[in-house]
Amino acid sequence: MDEQSQTITGPFGHFIRRANGLVYFYKRDDLAIDMSTAEKFLDTVRVLDDSGDARVMVIQGQGVEYSFEAQHLLLTNDVVGKVAYVIQTGTQYLTVELLQNMAKSFKSRMQLAIFQEVEEAEKWLLNS
Q1: What is this structure's pTM?
Q2: For position 1, what pLDDT does the model report?
Q3: What are the residue ranges spanned by the domains of the chain?
Q4: Distance CA 47, CA 58 (A)
Q5: Which of 96, 101, 111, 124 is buried most, with the most CB atoms less than 10 Å from its CB?
Q6: Contacts by residues 103-109 (CB-CB < 8 Å, ≥ 24 positions apart)
Q7: Splitting the chain (128 residues) into consecutive groups of 10 residues, what average pLDDT does each group show?
Q8: Hey, is 52 helix, strand or coil?
Q9: Architecture of 6-126 per CATH?
Q10: Residue 77: its pLDDT value, please?
């Protein structure tokens, strides 16, 4: 594994793969995630980690919305194995909790957890 960080920035925020192997996704605020945006997310993660089991930490922005199609694609993908959402507000928690419930409904292979601290999320992602 390359020991240097790699960063990809786009209109949706930026992705960073750090030396620890985790992909950090810092979402921008007021983001509407449709199917096209979800595909770009997965393509970006694949560029940073093509293992088919990427571990991603999402630093959730404010005012982020997901279309049903985008939710389905993100929760049933073959790129990401584990996602840790780091949230700061009750609204963010409700959004991610909905994603967790949908993952169960879709029988997603991806593990998804919610955290309030980056350090807790890193520990969970790295201990698998």
Answers
A1: 0.90
A2: 45
A3: 6-126
A4: 17
A5: 96
A6: 103/75, 106/72, 106/75, 106/76, 108/75, 108/76, 109/81
A7: 79 94 95 94 96 95 89 95 94 89 93 96 92
A8: coil
A9: 2-Layer Sandwich (3.30)
A10: 96
